[in-house]
Each structure stands twice: as structure tokens, then as C-alpha cells.
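Hey L., structure's done. Input below.
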Amino acid sequence: MGEMKSAFERAMEKVEKMGKATDEELKRLEYVPIGSALAARYLREEKFDLAGELNKYTDENVRKHVVNGMQEALLHNITLPKDDMSKKTTNKAISGLKLTKKSKNQLDALLDRISSLITYYEQARQQAFNQFKSAFESKLPELTRAMQQQAQKSGIPIETQVQLQFQEQWRRASSELDGQYEKVLEEHKQQIAALM
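Output:
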């Protein structure tokens, strides 16, 4: 019978079969995380100079990996805004992308589409919320009667039960709306990534 190999020995054999990483792969492994970290600082810090930091990388073979890391991080932070903070982050990520892309015309067109999508999303979300709230309020007397019986059994106040019911139903309704818009947003983000 053959000799049993340890997991380490099997892993080392696989590494040997794969061969050594090229200089280009090593640069990518080193500089993409640097670009991601710079983008993260840009999004976190109010006065961070992303363009100035990027200009420190003059070697084009290094710079392209830094830019790729920045772009990946910035694209990841473009989301449908749920609150003022996420809207601010998305807008800042869009501004940051404009600093990193060479294909400005194509990029500007895609970013304009994203900005329009976000505006439509915010309007649709507000309208859906208003409609949902009105429908919920019209069912409130009936719902309150049903919950009075539960409140006596559970000891949870009716107001709390109504609020929990409202939040749960709104979460379900809004997730459907979010899914529709997120699909289109992801398509736009993929188009931007293809410009890299």
C-alpha cells in the first residue's frame, strides 16, 4: 500500500504544479489592496485627496492595479440609499470613480444613469411607503380588534404589536421594490467595471 500524505504535503504538491506567480500577478496582489484601502479612506475621511494619492503612483504598471482596487471598492459602495448616510456614501463613491476612469464620456453617461435610477428609486420608495401606510391605516381598526385579544394573552401592548406588524409588512413590501432597482443598478455597475 502507498504511503499516506499529509494535507500539507498534498497542498505543497498542488502549489508546485501551479507554478510561480508572475511579476504582474505579484504586483496585482500587492497594489489592488492598496487601491481599495485608499478608496475606503476617501469614503471615510471628509478631506482625503484621492486624486493626489493616486498621482503618487507614476509607474503605469503599478498605477493600473491601484486604480483597479479603488474602482472595485468604490463600485461596491454604490448602493440604493436607505438613509442619508448611504446616500452620501454613494454620491462620494460616484465622485471618486470619476477621478479614476480614463473613459470619461462613457463613464459619465453610466453614472448619470445611476444617479437617475437612484432619484427614481427614492421617489418610488416614498410613494410606495405612502400608499402602504394609507392601506395599513385603513386596516388598523380591524387589526386593533384582533390584537386586543392577543395583547391580553401575551401582555404586549397593542401599540407595540401594531408597530411591529407595520414594520414587518413594510420590510417585505420594500424588499420587492429594492430587488427591482438593485438588479438595474448591478447591471450599470457591471458596465462601469467593464470600462476598466
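The mean pLDDT is 88. Residues 1-81 form one domain.

-- N.
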